[in-house]
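STRUCTURE:
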């Protein structure tokens, strides 16, 4: 019998799998309403729109997807205006979404293993990618873009979330090019930096920098030896930082129709992780190695004299699922947790050191946007309720990297969280006190509440995470566990 004690310090589950499964249901309906059920106070200074993306459909024509990352992108918009919040969700009308909805069945193989019906013969040699636009959504250069790392962005109308179509960013992207789902905003230069990856026997990385008006002002091409699967990067004033984790791709089962491409990745703990510092202004990449690990997400990075410091969520191996397991039945405790590590690279001695910042299982780190690429003190992340072991994300952790203290708010036992998004509070400006500057803002966290089988948007005060929500906006329905989001003050 699982305990439901959120204070548990042993590795006892603080959740029930049935509760967690409630957040893996599809949301086929599209809504458009003012949220009228609110507990607490919506901060009057919180004005703008939170856009979030994530897989909205976990089944098609009654057939369950093999993995949630294969789900069609659904955008949510929460608009804060005059103390009220408006909610809207719309599917990205990708070519694949439209064709499959019309056919009422799966027509494309998913990267994470969803097959077309009809067995392997019907999947054999079918390498068409379905751009599912499900990973991130950004408002930049007066355009709203839904991103998926293996294809072009989809452009949407920011007011209505209507899909305008796939875009090549003024001819920047050629047919077949990718555009990563992890742009980072350089606060000093007010630039959006992103990359595209072309994996192969050598991996090609193209770094892009966009000015505020959306124009691409810098483009650099780099290559490094070997295959790479790179989801995210870290940014400093001088470098784009890429971790090439020791994964190999054996494409045979993919080509033969037995497995999805991502199911053909294998982790080799005997090989190191390669770190590439790609100079933003061009030049020779700097190369370092560190012990084998797998990283999806970086929290932040900064330069300190000759050192580069990178804070990342590391897994001891690629957290792939056994292809025979239904992800809804996953035994969380049997998988390696993602944990926060600080990686310090000395450019002169080439020495790389790693130390764990906290053992708690976590994912989806964030920070005050003004500190991206800069020395910083406060890191926020979604995290498990138990301080050790692997489990679903149920709380928000704030680490003070200076005093090594932490604050934690938990939605356990029946609430589950997704990525927190930091929104600066323009009214709390105190240039005299840099620590308070960095916590001046709110964290917006979309939760799934198993008690109501619906979702809440939770507003936390970044300066006081452990006090719990300032407000909870209760939605009329659930939102399946999502991926990433951004806030725009418009
Ligand atoms: O050879 C390449 C291999 C590969 C895997 C070809 C490729 C570029 C087509 C490819 C594709 C990669 C893709 C499409 C990756 C998409 C990733 C994605 C949609 C999401 C990643 C999420 C990562 C994490 C860590 C999410 C965690 C979620 C939770 C802990 C809770 O829900
Ligand atoms: Fe990501």
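SEQUENCE:
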């Amino acid at each position: 019998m699982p305990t439901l004690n959120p204070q548990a310090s042993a590795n006892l589950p603080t959740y029930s799998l049935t509760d967690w499964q409630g957040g893996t249901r599809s949301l086929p309906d599209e809504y458009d309403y003012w949220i009228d059920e609110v507990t607490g106070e919506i901060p009057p200074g919180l004005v703008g729109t939170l856009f979030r993306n994530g897989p909205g459909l976990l089944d098609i024509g009654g057939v369950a997807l093999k993995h949630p990352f294969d789900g069609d992108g659904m955008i949510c918009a929460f608009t804060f205006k005059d103390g009220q919040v408006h909610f809207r969700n719309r599917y990205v009308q990708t070519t694949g979404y439209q064709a499959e909805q019309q056919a009422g069945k799966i027509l494309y193989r998913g990267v994470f293993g969803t097959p077309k019906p009809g067995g392997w013969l019907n999947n054999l040699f079918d390498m068409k990618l379905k751009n599912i636009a499900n990973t991130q959504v950004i408002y930049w250069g007066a355009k709203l873009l839904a991103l998926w790392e293996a294809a072009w962005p989809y452009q949407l109308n920011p007011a209505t979330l209507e899909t305008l179509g796939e875009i090549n960013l003024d001819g920047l992207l050629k047919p077949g090019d990718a555009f990563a789902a992890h742009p980072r905003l350089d606060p000093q230069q007010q630039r959006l930096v992103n990359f595209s990856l072309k994996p192969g026997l050598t991996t090609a990385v193209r770094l892009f920098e966009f000015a505020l008006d959306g124009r691409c002002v810098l483009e650099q091409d780099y290559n490094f030896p070997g295959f790479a699967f790179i989801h995210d990067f870290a940014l400093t004033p001088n470098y784009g930082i890429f971790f090439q984790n020791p994964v190999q791709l054996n494409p045979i089962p993919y080509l033969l129709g037995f497995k999805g491409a991502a199911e053909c990745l294998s982790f080799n703990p005997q090989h190191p992780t390669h770190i590439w510092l790609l100079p933003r202004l061009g030049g020779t990449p700097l190369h370092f190695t560190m012990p084998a690990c797998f990283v999806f997400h970086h929290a932040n990075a900064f330069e300190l004299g000759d050192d580069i410091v990178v804070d990342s969520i590391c897994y001891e191996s690629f957290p792939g699922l056994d292809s025979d397991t239904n992800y809804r039945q996953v035994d969380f405790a049997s998988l390696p947790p993602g944990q926060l590590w600080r990686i310090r690279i000395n450019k002169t001695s080439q020495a790389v050191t790693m130390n764990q910042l906290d053992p708690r299982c976590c994912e989806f780190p964030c920070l005050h946007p003004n500190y991206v690429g800069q020395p910083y003190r406060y890191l926020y992340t979604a995290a498990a309720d138990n301080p050790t072991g692997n489990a679903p994300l149920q709380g928000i952790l704030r680490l003070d990297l200076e005093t090594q203290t932490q604050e934690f708010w938990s939605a356990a036992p029946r609430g589950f969280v997704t990525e927190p998004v930091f929104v600066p509070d323009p009214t709390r400006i105190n240039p005299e006190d840099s620590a308070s500057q960095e916590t001046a803002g709110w964290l917006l966290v979309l939760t799934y509440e198993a008690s109501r089988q619906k979702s809440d948007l939770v507003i936390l005060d970044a300066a006081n995470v452990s006090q719990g929500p300032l407000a909870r906006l209760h939605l009329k329905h659930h939102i399946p566990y999502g991926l990433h989001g951004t806030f725009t003050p418009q």
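REMARK: Residues 182, 231-232, 296-297, 483-484 surround fe (iii) ion (ligand 2) (CB under 6 Å).
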